[in-house]
């Protein structure tokens, strides 16, 4: 699905919404959201997160899709095409760097998911308690060759999808799998809420203790919002480029935001009651869901089948996100090299990007500290920074009437909303992100 291709990859409006949702819904919702919420005080984090989704998420999702739709290009060519000069080219490079950093750790976690799927098939976790499951996770991450093997599998699978250009098949698959994932999660939530002591977890997740809100919590919530919605690294520019002219950006964005947030909250409703019922520490970090999920299945009927189904869906949700991440880098390489003496075709670009990711992932496997850095730097700093620049770009450097035309009609409530949107991206969002940055750095 490169913008170099002449046939649009999306068969329908629903297809585009699902593909965008496929990028957004992934490990960010099911793996990262619960553990970051657990580390940052539960309910207090949830409130700030929801506020971020409302004030940053929705308008910036619209902004990034707009850049793509308007330019018809990938992250590399979009800013240049709109402005007719290369003054904003640094932003394309920043998108590429961010994509590479995210892929470094994201593929490792996708590899963990593959491992858990295979373990579920072997019914390895029969009767396991939280201590055994923690040990299992630690022995997996401590075994570097095995972890590397699973990571490689995830990278190869994603590369194969891009190599053979079978994104359309994935899109069709999402139509069935996304609802299935939701149904599965509802069933799990239902079971977890019947566990003894589940109400402690529900209060942890839904009752906000405002004294826990610190600049770091706000920074983490903002970063999680950008990461979960895939905003601020160019993936959505590519999707926007394929949007049919008649498709509404605001309606698409709203649907994606609602779905993504619903999945994240549902993940919290599954994980936190179980965390407290099984006596796990909610601030346990990246291993949290891998310790809790297999224990939940042991409580469910059809535990073997349920766990296989869930981990399969989780792997697919992860891969639909890795596809959109890798696509940014592959399109970047082909587009950036197309005007040079040595143009790189799509297949060579897949190999080149694949090799870079293998190296970045190896760093993350060798050092949990580097893993943490890649995650923090990309989510909490680079993505908000890029999104801030995109807001300024659209707000100040694109003809105001074009924006009003895209988002609203000549008059009426839609026109007013478009006007409000413009003020939000021109003033409010840049200032708010800047304030959170300065606050997080302890400067303000
Ligand atoms: N939003 C994805 C998730 O929640 C991760 C992602 C980030 C994908 C940025 C693409 C771009 O898992």
The gist of it:
With 444 residues, this protein is mainly α. The chain has helices spanning 13-24, 27-39, 43-71, 78-83, 89-121, 130-142, 144-163, 167-192, 198-206, 215-228, 235-241, 249-277, 288-299, 303-337, 346-366, 368-397, 400-407, 413-440. It has one domain (13-383): Hydantoin permease, CATH 1.10.4160.
Structural overview:
This protein is an all-alpha fold. The chain has a single domain, classed as Hydantoin permease, CATH 1.10.4160. 78% of the residues lie in helices and 0% in strands. It is built from 18 helices and no strands. α6 packs across α13. The longest helix is centred in the C-terminal third of the chain and has 35 residues. The radius of gyration is 21 Å and the shape is globular. Bound molecules: phenylalanine (PHE). Phenylalanine binds next to α1, α2, α10 and α14.
What is the N-to-C order of secondary-structure elements (H for helix, E for strand)? Answer: HHHHHHHHHHHHHHHHHH
- Please report the number of helical segments: 18
The biggest sheet, with number of strands, parallel, antiparallel or mixed sense and barrel status, is:
none
Q: Rg, please?
A: 21 Å
Low-confidence stretches: 1-8
**Total tally of structural domains:** 1
Coarse shape: globular
Estimate the helix proportion, in percent: over 70%
Beta-strand proportion: under 5%
Which fold name is given in CATH as the topology? Hydantoin permease
CATH class: Mainly Alpha
What is the averaged pLDDT score?
A: 92
CATH homologous superfamily designation: Hydantoin permease
Named at the architecture level, the CATH assignment is Orthogonal Bundle
Tell me the number of strands.
0
The ligands bound in this entry are: phenylalanine
Structural class label: mainly alpha
N→C terminal distance: 43 Å
